[in-house]
Amino acid sequence: MTTSSQVFYRKWRPGTFSDLAGQEHVGNTLRQAVMQGRVSHSYLFCGTRGSGKTTTARVLSKAVNCLDPRDGDPCEQCAICVSINEGRNLDIIELDAASNRGVEEIREIRDKVHFQPAQNRRKVYIIDEAHMLTREASNAFLKTLEEPPAHVIFILCTTEADRILPTIISRCQRYDFRRLPGQTIYDRLAYITDQEGVAIQPDALRMVARNAGGSMRDALNMLEQLAVSADREITLRDVEEALGLVRSDAYLVLAQKMLAGDTSGSLETINDVVWEGGEPRQLHRQTLEILRSILLLSWDAGDTLDLPPDLLSSLQAEAQKHDASTILRAVRTWGEANLRYDAPSTLPLEIAAAEICRKDVIVAAPEVRAPEVRAPERAAPAQSPPREAPRPPRREAPPANAPARESRPAAAPPARPSPPANAEAPAARSSSPAAAPDSFQGRWEQVVRRLGRDKGSKYNLGALLRDCRPNGVHLSDDAATLVLPFTNVANLDRMQEELNDPRVRDTIEQAIEQFFGERHAFTVTLAGANGDGDRPGAQFRAGQPSIPHRHRPGSASNRGKLAGGSVYTMMNRKMMRQAQQLQNRLAKAQQELEEMSVEGSAGGGVVRVTMTGKQEVTSVIIEPEAAEDIDLLQDLVAAAVNDASNRTQELAAEKMGAVTGGMNIPGLI
Region (Disordered) spans which residues (predicted)? Predict the structure, then answer.
């Protein structure tokens, strides 16, 4: 194997536009600009790490100064190209903005930029990590960047373009560097290993490319680490050990056991991997990739997978064993495993594996058609008194296995109607004493179990919703709202407090949609005096302000009134829905106003002030031609601030007026 004093990523750095791997859209454009003599004075290169930004900047600096250019590419042989490659050219200045980020460094550039190049035709400034420049330094750089001398080119490189001032971006030609595809990295690594004489198996090389995260530099560093550590052919196991990966067969076995419902085998595999030194996070990530690949293959979308042939065939066989809904549920459950623990605990993975293996909770995913849920029947079943009958949704065949009440004598349940042809419930469910999962009550119990994994701002949502008896939960008369009657006033208070957060409401609605097949609005109420949910008390709709406890039915002051049959009512439901919609539109408009940026000016644009929608000044720009008189300058700044403030208020009034329809609501602006 050939030895070199340079590391791989420096030794094999591309020297021409033609050598740029995976960034042809950038290389071809810059080559044409050089050939036509239309090179810009400033460029902005954006992209992930290791995608070729700094390398392209160096190639461009060589191309504009090369003594013998060839179709827009540098020759790589003249004195200029050689000196730039060796890092000793005085006219190519590279700055790291992470350590040269202040105003003083920018002033030094501004003072030296007018000097003629020492040996090149053009002087090139390459500013790496440009997003690290301070706001003051960026503002000081604006004028020089906009109108530099004819012999100067600025190239700014960044991984976070959103952190650069828009005024800088508008002064540059922007090029976005793509994340390198795995095949592109693999082809480049194969060429380098062939040139360097490194013996490595194709599967091992493909694993390196796959774990590079789209970065050629990271891939070359990993390859060099493997090359110097092995005195023989590098195998797939060598790559897994060097990168700290779980052995390739472990996560495949784990995925197979979870999909097969083997709980003990799944838990044993997880603990075996960790006992052997595997990292739980790596096991989680790689197993999730395997489950994703199986899901794509089950949907006949496996053309995008970049996997070894033997692994691909194993995954194809696994995809044919299970239906897509089972695999999709496994992907969701495994992906939701919470690994935000400081200690490397296997508990989240064990819980996720156990839930995947539980066949009794497998339900139709939202993509699979669920039984239709309709409005409740007016007539109660003949077997029970009307007062005790819960209000189920209207169905073609009402569920006959609803659990009997404690006060009712035990009776043989009527024969259960045969399930529809498209139902896939296991046969063993019919013998379970609990509510059938495809019944209305069974679906609600699954919603509660699902929300048991979610915590609101203070309380566990599933724990609060267990206070709603399954036989009391029902649809409203118009079948548009799910009514959740609470038997405990304290739990109702806690749930109302949680519902003040829109994210909590959205989480509950998503869970309802997942198990009921469609998205329902929901209303929390206090159950009737007998606690059976047949007679709703005060209704608390998601997003309504809380009602003081003393005014709620069930409080000491109103308990007698309810017992006498008095009904506590809220305002009209349609009016409340309209008020809630108006409130949501106002909240959205206020958020947009806070994120808005308004510019005010004074003195014909000599002083410019940028202000947010909250009337907070974010920047003050004073042009060099501004007056030197301090008092006059202060007056100009104050005038610019007032101008920006007036524009902010005008925009806010216009936006709020459009939302409220011209209605004047005090306190909005």
Answer: 373-441, 531-562
Give the containing element (helix H, strand E) for 609.
Answer: strand 607-612
| Same domain as 155, residue 17 | yes
Residue with tokens 């992930």: 48
On whether residue 382 sits in a domain, the answer given is no
Same domain, yes or no, for 473 and 552?
yes
- CA 375, CA 477: separation in Å to the nearest integer? 6
The CA distance from 423 to 528, in Å, is 36
């461009």: which residue's tokens?
Answer: 60
Counting residues of the chain whose pLDDT is more than 90, the rounded percentage is 25
Identify the top-confidence range among 3-12, 317-326, 619-628: 317-326
Element (H, E) at 275: helix 263-275
**Minimal CA–CA distance to 537: which of 591, 472, 470?**
472
Q: With a threshold of 0.85, does the pTM exceed it?
A: no
The answer to whether residue 100 sits within a structural domain is yes
* Same domain for 333 and 317: yes
- Per the model's pLDDT, the better-predicted residue between 470 and 118 turns out to be 118
Share of the chain above pLDDT 70, in %: 76
How much is the CA Rg of the chain, to the nearest whole Å? 34
- 560 and 615 co-located in one domain: no
Q: Are residues 470 and 544 in the same domain?
A: yes
The set of long-range contacts for 233-240, using a CB threshold of 8 Å and a minimum separation of 24, is: 233/199, 233/200, 233/201, 234/198, 234/199, 234/200, 234/201, 234/204, 235/201, 235/204, 236/201, 236/203, 236/204, 236/207, 238/204, 239/204, 239/207, 239/208, 240/207
Asked which of 220, 243, 266 is the last residue of a domain, the reply is 243
Residues 597 and 484 occupy one common structural domain:
no
- Last residue of one domain, picked from the residues 156, 177, 198: 177
Per residue in 425-438, is it b (16+ CB within 10 Å) or e — as a string? beeebeeeeebbbb
CATH number at residue 235: 1.10.8.60
More confident residue, 92 or 531: 92
SS3 letters across 342-360: CCCCCHHHHHHHHHHHCHH
Q: What is the DSSP pairing of strand 617-622 with strand 607-612? A: antiparallel
In a domain, 377, yes or no: no
Q: How far apart are the first and last CA of the chain?
A: 72
**Is residue 614 assigned to a domain?**
yes
3-state secondary structure 489-528: HHHHHHHHHHCCCHHHHHHHHHHHHHHHCCCCEEEEEECC
Q: Per the structure block, which two tokens stand in for 166?
A: 């828009």
* Domain extent at residue 104: 8-177
Residues 22 and 70 in one domain: yes
Asked whether the beta carbons of 20 and 59 are under 8 A apart, the reply is yes
